[in-house]
């Protein structure tokens, strides 16, 4: 993922994805190409560093039996981002069970996830909310009926 152009050119680095796809950590150093006019992290890059992870983690937990997409996103900028910033994603059993319960038939699940982007000192730089859509794949619906 570190060579994926949207991450590579924004300076976003995937530090860790756990083998069980329950945890991910990313970081972004402040560079000339991801600074805004004021010399702090560009807001679009802060949002981009959180973009694919909830979908990636959830999709892998659902073992390919569901269609999983980002549906909506929000970002609240709390403080100027200077230096290196980090974001962590922890998918819980409750998240997975919630999706499985809501998608037992052909229903969709819409789940909100929260992620803080934090600075080197642990201060929150931005709060990101992502809504993920999941629905059991049609062929999997028939197999489980």
From TrEMBL:
InterPro entries: DUF4442, HotDog_dom_sf. It comes from Lentzea pudingi. This is DUF4442 domain-containing protein. SUPFAM superfamilies: Thioesterase/thiol ester dehydrase-isomerase. The lineage of its organism: Bacteria, Bacillati, Actinomycetota, Actinomycetes, Pseudonocardiales.
């Amino acid at each position: 993922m570190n060579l994926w152009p949207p991450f590579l050119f924004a300076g976003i680095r995937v530090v860790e994805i756990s083998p069980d796809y329950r945890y991910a950590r990313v970081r972004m150093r402040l560079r000339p190409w991801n600074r805004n006019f004021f010399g702090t992290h560009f807001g679009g890059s802060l949002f981009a560093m959180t973009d694919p992870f909830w979908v990636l983690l959830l999709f892998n937990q659902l073992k390919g039996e569901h269609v999983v997409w980002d549906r909506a996103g929000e970002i609240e900028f709390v403080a100027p981002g200077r230096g290196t910033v980090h974001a962590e994603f922890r998918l819980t059993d409750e998240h997975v069970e919630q999706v499985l319960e809501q998608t037992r038939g052909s229903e969709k699940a819409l789940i909100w996830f929260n992620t803080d982007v934090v600075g080197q000192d642990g201060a929150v730089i931005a709060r990101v909310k992502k809504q993920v859509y999941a629905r059991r794949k049609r062929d999997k619906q028939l197999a489980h009926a």
